[in-house]
Amino acid sequence: MEIIQNQYHTKETLYFALTRMFERASYYGFKTLIVLYMVGETLKMERSEALNIYGVFTASLVFSQILGAVLGDLVIGNRRSVILGAILQAIGTFCICIPLTTGLYLGLFLIALGCGFYTPNLISNFGKLYFNKTKLLDSGFTIFHLATNLGSFFGVLLIGYLGDKYGFNFGFILAGVLMLISLIPIVLSKERNFEKTENNRSGLNKRILIIVMAFTLVGLFWGFNDMSYIRNSDLQLQFKELSSSVFPDYFWQVGNSIFFLPISIIAIVLWNKFYSNHFFKIMLGFIFGAIAIGILLLIPEIPTEQHLMIFFISLLFFGIAEVHIAPVIYSILTKYSNPKYLAILIGLTYLPTALISFSFGLFNDKIYDNPILGLKIGIIGMAIIGIGLISFIWWNKKLPTTSA
């Protein structure tokens, strides 16, 4: 660990973070309403049909982000892709207001396509702000990730509440307006020609190895987390019923973010002053993830209100784990990639995560009957990777100083 000197965040960091916050508020607010809208009085779909459509929509995001990243890096440029993506998403949410299945399908298509243009290109341009101050990458991307969670937090609360109180169309229109507002910081920011002038002394093969490791680790982290999802969801539903008089229903939709927000602020402050190995942070993420899942084992099959604090402690540890994983992966890609193809690499990060989650999902039938098995697999998997990363860091002590 070393003290960071003469490296500072700029106002562009704030602009990009605000853009992401408004976009995520729009997107997650829309997601809160869409299934309820499909099964509601307007379209009157069967719940199974609505969930299938929603599943196809979310799966399509993996491929749309790869397409948007390729076009952004190689054809139309990253900044133009961000603007195009935001406009497409806004039009998509407005189209859903059309009380026909045609409006629904057109809206979902435009939102998926717009998200593909928007997300990898915005993250890419944000990372490029730090090409010549790479020791601030972890702090910068944690600011960005904090904005993402703030957006989802307020989007779910605001759009979910207003859509429920005043009608779905009101919620969708608000989501579209928020998407258009997200364009304002990007338009205000100056377009810059990003050049990577810091010398990275790592060889090509080593950089490829590090990037592949980053892809694999982020996929495994979320994959093992998914192994505990069935038990976690069951506990969440039970605690929701037990504490209905204490917490409103929408609290449980954003409960994870409540702990992530203060943890992120602490991490931003620390990582703004001190630099340490990316893989050391990821190692801590897996260890805290194993602890978070392990704590769930302390809760009996049928919990009482007395076990609610244990559940919150688990959420706290998972928040610590996430802040050591999600932002740091983007830091690694930014630091070790060719800047011409950074958006493409960021778009591709969703592919191994989806593949690993799908592979682990093949065992969901067994885990559904025995959710404790999923917890044990998650604990063992995260602990093994954490220990393996300790060995990797010990073997490669010079990794933190591979760039100036």
Automatic annotation (TrEMBL):
<keyword id="KW-1003">Cell membrane</keyword>
<keyword id="KW-0812">Transmembrane</keyword>
<feature type="transmembrane region" description="Helical">
    <location>
        <begin position="375"/>
        <end position="395"/>
    </location>
</feature>
<dbReference type="InterPro" id="IPR011701">
    <property type="entry name" value="MFS"/>
</dbReference>
<protein>
    <submittedName>
        <fullName>Peptide MFS transporter</fullName>
    </submittedName>
</protein>
<feature type="transmembrane region" description="Helical">
    <location>
        <begin position="82"/>
        <end position="102"/>
    </location>
</feature>
<dbReference type="GO" id="GO:0005886">
    <property type="term" value="C:plasma membrane"/>
</dbReference>
<dbReference type="Pfam" id="PF07690">
    <property type="entry name" value="MFS_1"/>
</dbReference>
<feature type="transmembrane region" description="Helical">
    <location>
        <begin position="51"/>
        <end position="75"/>
    </location>
</feature>
<feature type="transmembrane region" description="Helical">
    <location>
        <begin position="108"/>
        <end position="131"/>
    </location>
</feature>
<feature type="transmembrane region" description="Helical">
    <location>
        <begin position="21"/>
        <end position="39"/>
    </location>
</feature>
<dbReference type="InterPro" id="IPR036259">
    <property type="entry name" value="MFS_trans_sf"/>
</dbReference>
<feature type="transmembrane region" description="Helical">
    <location>
        <begin position="208"/>
        <end position="230"/>
    </location>
</feature>
<feature type="transmembrane region" description="Helical">
    <location>
        <begin position="308"/>
        <end position="330"/>
    </location>
</feature>
<feature type="transmembrane region" description="Helical">
    <location>
        <begin position="168"/>
        <end position="188"/>
    </location>
</feature>
<feature type="transmembrane region" description="Helical">
    <location>
        <begin position="143"/>
        <end position="162"/>
    </location>
</feature>
<feature type="transmembrane region" description="Helical">
    <location>
        <begin position="250"/>
        <end position="271"/>
    </location>
</feature>
<feature type="transmembrane region" description="Helical">
    <location>
        <begin position="342"/>
        <end position="363"/>
    </location>
</feature>
<feature type="transmembrane region" description="Helical">
    <location>
        <begin position="283"/>
        <end position="302"/>
    </location>
</feature>
<dbReference type="InterPro" id="IPR050171">
    <property type="entry name" value="MFS_Transporters"/>
</dbReference>
<keyword id="KW-1133">Transmembrane helix</keyword>
<keyword id="KW-0813">Transport</keyword>
<keyword id="KW-0472">Membrane</keyword>
<dbReference type="GO" id="GO:0022857">
    <property type="term" value="F:transmembrane transporter activity"/>
</dbReference>
